[in-house]
Amino acid sequence: MMQKANIHGSPASHILQSGTDGSQSASIEGSDYAVIVQIIGDVALKDWEQIRDDVERRQQLAEKLGMSEKAVLSFFSQIDKNEVPLAEWPEKFAEIAQLYRSQQERLDRYDGKDAQLVEIRLATKTALDALDWPTAEKLWLEAAARQREINDEAEELLRDGKLAEAEDYVGAAESAAGDFEYQRAAQHYLEAARILERWDAEVTRGRYLNQAGIRFLDAGKYEAGVQAMLPPLEITKVALGEEHPSYATTLNNLAGLYFHTERYAESAAYMEQALSILEATLPAAHPNIEMLQEGLTIIRSRIPTE
Q1: What residue segments make up the domains of the chain, in order of their start?
Q2: Is the pTM above the cut of 0.85?
Q3: Which of 116, 138, 203, 250 holds its CA 20 to 30 A away from the CA of 304?
């Protein structure tokens, strides 16, 4: 009985195609390792040396496996160079074929237009046909680095476009406010802020949200104003610090919104914090300090006494 190659693992399934002689033989689709094992397992162990020395048989095996004949020849060259025992050839070949097919499919999927990447991909294909794995690894890393450059450039262009889009919504918000349509203006500010969520522009996003809160206040939509104003409070705190005048401004705006929702204790707490920042950063006679002191007095007068 003819001895077949023994490969570790058993194929789960394989694809059968009719040969020119009416026989059935396995043929590979994709990089399905089970199919590779089936194809190689059908080769008698004694036939491997003949395949090595016969270009036609190498071509037939390469076609079944979806490899180039040059890659199959490179395999045998490496086998001979490393003096791998004949009994291990099938298992080694199955592993190499699977790796080759996986990488070849990855190369075939690339349809980019970047000239540098195209050149790298062609060089990678040449390295694969030679089974020159160190060179292939180096080229894959070069491709990854180039792709990163392309992605960064595209990301920067997209970021600039998104910032411009947000600015257009701000223009719309200002126009709506000019027409005394404050609620619509607030919605435009919210959309501008939403656009900037993933674009490393938190200070600008916080400013838009702050403006949305102010316009909700102007429109008498106080709860909506509070919801719009709370995120920029945290954004400003993290980005600029708790002693920054912009943080005090946001606190003051929130105090006004809470005042109009009749939550006077919370309003007073925000106003006290804003006043504390201004007293620490501005001259004692500054008009903003006086304005907040007067506002705080009004707010406290509304807090019920026990």
Answers
A1: 1-109, 161-302
A2: no
A3: 250
